[in-house]
Specification:
Blueprint lengths: L2 E5 L2 E3 L5 E8 L7 E7 L6 E7 L4 E3 L7 E6 L4 E6 L8 E8 L8 E2 L3 E5 L2
């Protein structure tokens, strides 16, 4: 069974930075794409960034230039470096695992809260 464990969320001031981590374990080997989604209160869950095993990335327009996704294949870990954070970035962030970037993820982590506030 696949398990995804996120860490790194918390409270940060506008303009600050956070680095999220997600470690995968179990039978994850068939899945090529790791990514991050987020869901704010009253809103739909939306993709933030994805990365393939080979390093190809995709970003939501709202985070381009501010967020950076990376992956350590040896450690089965994906990271999300979040800079210049805005209150609009406040959400629960979910790590995900899937087959291809154009398809919905197959597995989700438990989520980690990111709150951007003064």
């Amino acid at each position: 069974q696949v398990q995804l464990v996120e860490s790194g969320g918390g409270l940060v001031q506008p303009g600050g930075s956070l680095r999220l981590s997600c470690a995968a374990s179990g039978s994850w080997f068939s899945f090529n794409v790791m990514g991050w989604y987020r869901q704010a209160p009253g809103k739909q869950r939306e993709p933030v960034a994805t990365i393939t095993r080979g390093g190809s990335t995709n970003y939501a327009d709202s985070v381009k230039g501010r967020f950076s996704i990376s992956r350590d294949n040896a450690k089965n870990t994906v990271f999300l470096q979040m800079n210049s954070l805005k209150p609009e970035d406040t959400a629960v962030y979910y790590c995900s695992l899937g087959l291809v970037p154009t398809s919905p993820p197959r597995y989700w982590g438990q989520g980690t809260q990111v709150t951007v506030s003064s």
